[in-house]
Fold these 2 entries.
Entry 1:
Amino acid sequence: MLKNGGNQIKLFKKSGNGKSNILDLRGTYKGGGGPDKTILQSAVRHDPDKLNVLVAYLRQPGDNEFQIEEMAKSLGVNYVDFFDGRLLDLLCLWNLQKLIRKEKIRLVHSHDDKTLLYGVLLKCFVPRLQIMYTCHSHSDYRKESFSTFVDFLKYRLRKKIQLGLMGCYAKPILTISENTKKRLVDGGLQPDKVAVLYNGIDVDYWCRSKAQPVLRKELKLADNHFLIGTVARITYDKDFPTFLEVAHRVALKIPNVKFVIVGDGYGDELEKLKKEAEKQGLESVVFFTGHRSDLLNVYASFNLFLLTSLTEGLPNTILEAMAMEVPVVSTNVGGVPELIVPNITGGLCSVGDVQSLTDVVSNLLLQPDERMKMAKSGRKRVEECFNFVERVRILEDYYLSFLGSGELDSVSEGS
């Protein structure tokens, strides 16, 4: 056990051949998201003959629904977490540097804004430490997206700080899409200092034959009912007002269609969204499940996957849907067009274009043969282009290179 502010923090050790020398550092809330799945699954698959990986998470003290610990334990991941309750939690930092010294960590891999900052500060504590960063998303909003100009200025300042902190990290900075790389380069990073390492997915796990459409039974849907779903954190970025309007319009055209939103927010966002759906008279059209961990069965319940986001990195949810042979309709944002081939594996529409989203969704529902072709094509694309095993191999090459014991010759741009 490690102690953090009087709380017992469990460290799950898996059999290895020495001390961990890589610290995968991430902060998240409740059940986490796409990056969390990637981090935990990567830790399971790293070659123990080359390196040992310890996964560390920052968790908010009041987060009673935090699930990463149990996920790590079920996977047998070498894992520890620390309470982090402030913008700059000095006790958390102190405990992290003690862990780094105790476990003889040589490299810290950060994944989000908070750990981007903490990685730089940890290097001040331990100068010999190498630090690397993966940028999973770098938003690009205009001032019209903010209620006040002051909020817009705060957002711009935050982006400047992010880019400044990235300058302290080993190069290249990793990103998960060409679009995210472009945003970083537009922000001032040199193109040769940023590299793309696409998200990957375990196609043996994400397989429709292993799942049951339990959500359809829970919602008491008849066989002739269509179910359109999304799996997402309930945040501003996901543009759920557009999702609700699309649901309203599609339901007017196709009465036997239902929609479901799978996910939760950071606070009371779920309850607010439920009330908004009721206000619009959609309580019999749009359903809410909250957070679910049985996502194989969730995806297997969908006829279509719908994403209405304002911004994205490279969404794992789209990869999961495609692997589960669910056609995807999405807004054309971030790295999404690097996943979806229009009219082959799904449909792409402009942000906020309710009519276009409605038309694409409606047309696909009425064309079962086209949906089937897209389902098969989506699965094939994931198998060929977003292989998780290959991603882990390339990430190991980066680790070894940053540690001075490997080369990056086998890593190609945009891998």
Entry 2:
Amino acid sequence: MGTATNAISNGSAEPKATAPRKERNARGRRAAKPGEPSMARYFLIKASGSDGLHLGQEVASENEALTASFRASGTYAVVTEWKADVDVSSGAPVIKKEAIRHEKK
């Protein structure tokens, strides 16, 4: 099909301008703003067997986790922690999630 056009008073047609899209990361979530502290925590993964995943040492940033996991030929995990809270201000209870922020070491 053809492109969408807008009719102009002189009879000519021009392509319709589209609004710029908001920047989002690969999974469609809102990216953290530069001044906004990240709620994510980064852990190296200990060698795990069939009994599940075991978090190892916590590192300060994703770059540190990436580097350390590369050196150890291992993997790392990104963890976000949430707390469930009930809001009854509207008259009906609504469960909302609240992010837990940890101070960086």
